[in-house]
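Retry 2 of 3 after timeout on previous attempt. Resubmitting structure tokens to design endpoint.
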């Protein structure tokens, strides 16, 4: 009786490595429009995949002279087809009771993602 279960265990261990997707570097250029928001002092990004974290902001930098557009470039090593993020302004999350933004990686190595704070 032990032989069939041992055989199944051996067979399963041989098949498992074939289920892992290969990982690649994926870069996302995040552009966030904060026009109309009062007293913007800092803009950040939080997310699922390294180097992002749900516990700490990755700062976005002003991308134009009037500071209405902020930018960050994030490269992650992943086997997934998408990532999840939320923006912060002055430490406050957008979409507090809603789903995260889902960013699908494009066919190339770099994806440009344009957004407005708290607008889907």
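Retry 2 succeeded. Sequence:
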């Amino acid at each position: 009786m032990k032989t069939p279960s041992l055989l199944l265990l051996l067979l399963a261990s041989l098949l498992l490595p074939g289920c892992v997707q290969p990982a690649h570097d994926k870069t996302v250029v995040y552009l966030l429009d904060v026009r109309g928001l009062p007293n913007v002092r800092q803009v950040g990004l939080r997310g699922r995949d390294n180097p992002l974290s749900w516990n700490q902001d990755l700062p976005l930098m002003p991308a134009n002279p009037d500071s209405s557009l902020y930018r960050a470039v994030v490269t992650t090593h992943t086997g997934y087809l998408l990532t999840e993020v939320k923006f912060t302004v002055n430490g406050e999350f957008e979409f507090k009771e809603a789903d995260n933004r889902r960013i699908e990686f494009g066919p190339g190595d770099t994806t440009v993602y344009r957004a407005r704070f708290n607008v889907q």
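Attempt log closed. The first strand starts at residue 24 and ends at 33.
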